[in-house]
Amino acid sequence: MFSLASRRLVNAATNNSRFFSSTAVMGKKVAVLGAAGGIGQPLSLLLKLSPNVSELSCYDIVGTPGVAADLSHIPTASSVTGNLPAAGSWPPSHNTGIEAALTGASVVVIPAGVPRKPGMTRDDLFNTNAGIVKGLVEACADFCPDAVLAIISNPVNSTVPIAAEVLKKKGVYNPKKLCGVTTLDVCRANTFVAASMGKDPKDVNVTVIGGHAGITILPLFSQVPGFSPSDEDREALTVRTQFGGDEVVKAKAGAGSATLSMAYAGYLFTEEVLRAMNGADDVVQCAFVESSLTDAPFFSSPCKFGPDGVTEVMGFGEISAYEQKWMDQMLPDLKKQIQKGIDFANQ
Ligand SMILES: NC(=O)c1ccc[n+]([C@@H]2O[C@H](COP(=O)([O-])OP(=O)(O)OC[C@H]3O[C@@H](n4cnc5c(N)ncnc54)[C@H](O)[C@@H]3O)[C@@H](O)[C@H]2O)c1
Ligand SMILES: O=C(O)C[C@H](O)C(=O)O
């Protein structure tokens, strides 16, 4: 079931007739917070092309009127608005502000916040991004308490627990509707393994579990049918998946982190959430959610999605002794990063 869903994800981006469909059947309002940024702009572009989106709401502290005006010339059935915190919006007749941006949204995707520079860990972003995510999630609680929230802002291992605490304080926490987006880790693992196996990536589906930072990212290569790498290759692929973000940060040399691949991953994740909201009963994808699979209170694993978000946090099956070693190493770090988020929200 998971591999079928994964194949659909890839097909969604390669099937032009679906991509450029002009019929927005049961389309939903989707808000992107941080929509003028490196991820936000290409993510908004991809969502403007989605037949599952009827209204695209772009919100940022700068630049969204221009982003929205630009996107609005694309001939798809969805409408688009550009929203700023105070004065200025696109179209000019539209009420601006976060209330207008969020009201009626079914899904809110949050890539707002600063990215890494070489030499930084994702945790080094905490001091800036924790407050940004807290403020935005407070607004979500006020103006779209029933929306599914998809958190991209790093450090995801801490920003998702912050969001949970904020929603609890506001009395609207629904664990089925709060997800950290770890889809980029799955994309990377699929890409790297497909290259190593000489396969088309659409025929590969790696389950990636844990969190979204360094060794907390654990690709389960032992579960890939027909894949039996040497110990050396398995180690290299595991570490490359764990540190794929660093590879991009280094190559961008101070100009930020992954934006284009993340926009693609964020689009895939959102499309699948929307497809499930519209009644598809085969949607399974990895997400960082409240979980009792391990003793970390949040954990990424395959999740089944339905009309109201996550309907089942699925197990991750048998893992190899090699993977268990990584799991044992990861859990203390992951729990610490989760607790840091919880403490921040409650200070
Ligand atoms: N989850 C993942 O897999 C993943 C992958 C890549 C990047 N990221 C993270 O995504 C975040 C964004 O990365 P980017 O490259 O797009 O950065 P960016 O700096 O290009 O864009 C961030 C945008 O957020 C906006 N912003 C800042 N504060 C805001 C607020 N209070 N309200 C609304 N918007 C606000 C900025 O104006 C900017 O346009 C970073 O934290 C990065 O680490 C996560
Ligand atoms: O590496 C980063 O800082 C951005 C993102 O989390 C990624 O995995 O690319």
From TrEMBL:
Signal sequence region: none
Superkingdom as given in the UniProt entry: Eukaryota
GO cellular component: cytoplasm
Top-rank EC class of the record's enzyme: oxidoreductase
Keyword check for Oxidoreductase: yes
EC number, UniProt record: 1.1.1.37
Limits of the Lactate/malate dehydrogenase N-terminal domain: 29-180
Any GO molecular function: L-malate dehydrogenase (NAD+) activity
Name of one Pfam family that matches: Ldh_1_C
Residue ranges occupied by any Lactate/malate dehydrogenase C-terminal domain in the UniProt entry: 182-344
InterPro entries linked to this entry: L-lactate/malate_DH (IPR001557), Lactate/malate_DH_C (IPR022383), Lactate/malate_DH_N (IPR001236), Malate_DH_AS (IPR001252), Malate_DH_type1 (IPR010097)
GO annotation, biological process: malate metabolic process; tricarboxylic acid cycle
UniProt family annotation: Belongs to the LDH/MDH superfamily. MDH type 1 family.
Subunit and partners: Homodimer.
NCBIfam families named among the record's database cross-references: MDH_euk_gproteo
The protein's name in its UniProt record: Malate dehydrogenase
Organism this protein belongs to: Nitzschia inconspicua
